[in-house]
Amino acid sequence: MDFVRAMFVSALLFATSLSAMAQGGGGASFDALLNSAEKYRSSDSSRFTALLAEMESRKKEASAAQLQRYDYLRAYEAVVYKDEIKAGIETARRLFEGDAEPTLKFRAGSLVANAAALNRDFTTGLRYLERSLEIRNSVRSKVVRHEGLGAAAVIYNQMGQHEIALRYAKEILKDSPSARIRCGVSHARLSSEFALSRVSDSNEGISRIIQQCAEAKEPIGANLVRIILAKKLAKEQKLQDALALMDGALQEVESTKYPWLIADFRAVLSELKFDAGDFAAAEAHANEAVSYGKQVASSAALVTAYRTLYRIQANKEKGTVALELYKRYAESQMAHQSDVKARELAYEIVRHETQQKNKEIELLQAQQRLERENTQKAQLTTLFLAILLAGIVFWAFQIKRHQQQLKKLAQTDSLTGLGNRHYFTQKSERALVDAARAGEPASLVMFDLDHFKAINDTYGHGAGDWVLKQVGKTCSAHCRKVDYIGRIGGEEFAVLLRGIDLAGASRLAEDCRAQLAQIDTRDCGYSFVVTGSFGVSSTAQSGYDLSRLLSHADQMLYRAKNEGRNRVCAYTTEAAADHRSARRSPSLSVVNR
């Protein structure tokens, strides 16, 4: 499941029984409504919404402080129940930046941090988290402080900093939190430990956490923990226990009406059903998860659901349908991986900003001390300013260098060192525009490795990764500086060749194909042959549109697979006609790439 997304839900559900903030005047009835809304905001969404509606009609009775609390609850409703995250963020941001008292300001900042991360604005989330934690010593309520620390645990889990998140979660648990906060933070702790592959609880211990969440009337938290337990049971080869756990809770999950939880739950359940051989149920659950696609974009739930649907169709030997589902699976996986990289990038950006801020504070403090101690020493003051300026220039240079490194990280496939799909597409489109303007030919070579899944299955993913690196090095050696080579899929690569026609590109592809077969795999500890199938297209036949060049090259790659693999097929008028004829032939078997 999408653990990090689920952890944000846990953080938003932490504090539900905050003590009332005393209000003066005749607003006691409105204050009672506020306290009731606080009580039910995470355990009974219908009652919570009804209370807010009643307060909306009675806002004239409220004091300024009561209206601020009401605005916070409205922001919470927008984020958690209405999927109006931007509106919720804006309301909570105004509270944080305004004149609200410290406790409400702290809660608003925590809500902004969580909601921004839910909206995939991870940089803003981290910034508001840090600003909120700076004022936590002004907050007397232990529950509210737990909210802030819980948000820190959640967001650091989201950033992949699970050790830091685990430290915050344990700090809360040692401080005797309320039952509802214990439910949320227990999920944050389990998520950290699951990501680190060291869950400390037994299955019975996790079941007790689920029971505690249920007793605290926290169905969302209970089922988030239940998913972790089901995954753990499946890893322990206790598939039937995992299925019983999930099937028994499905109705409760649906009753929450929370899209991310339902999609995650259904996706995991589809995978378990597939493993149990119940393909019909697996397909039904996967389709239910996919139906939430727009609401859970770039989530691991979509990746899991599409993978299950693809495996079902492949098992039924429905090649065309399976191929289409595999493409959707690959697209959802790439979107999810891009999202993960965005979180990592946001963490690095804010970390560097924090370092810069701390340095600036240190420099400023040093300046103030020096000015107090040396008010009569103008020369020392001048020297200090020179050092300060040099320090600022140095850190500006450092920040610029780190930004360039992060930009390169966002453009590069971390395994092979080649350009990733986004970078390859961006550079290739610009190169085609320049080639068209200059009247130069250009060609595109697309290839993927034959039977690569068998390599992973037989020799392990370590050997598969080694092969991908060697393939990248081998084919890069045949490229010029003006060419662009990228890894555009799992074992799929593409090369854009400017100034080279179809014949020249086919020769280069043939050279690469021959070199792949010469790779000595004994260095990875096993002996096997690496081969690839190549498709070639050129602007002479396909024009200067990258998507058309990719489509035609992909058709020829598909043809190379059908003709026996380990070969090069170039896109010509005759080849295109043959390919269309072969695709229409009912006797053609679908090749698994």
Automatic annotation (TrEMBL):
Residues 1-22 form the signal peptide. The keyword Transmembrane applies. The chain crosses the membrane at residues 378-397. Its EC number is 2.7.7.65. Residues 440-573 form the GGDEF domain. Pfam families: GGDEF (PF00990). It catalyses: 2 GTP = 3',3'-c-di-GMP + 2 diphosphate. It is an enzyme of class 2 (transferase). Keywords: Coiled coil, Membrane, Signal, Transmembrane, Transmembrane helix. The keyword Membrane applies. InterPro entries: Diguanylate_Cyclase, GGDEF_dom, Nucleotide_cyclase, Rev_trsase/Diguanyl_cyclase, TPR-like_helical_dom_sf. Residues 347-383 form a coiled coil. It comes from the Bacteria. This is diguanylate cyclase.
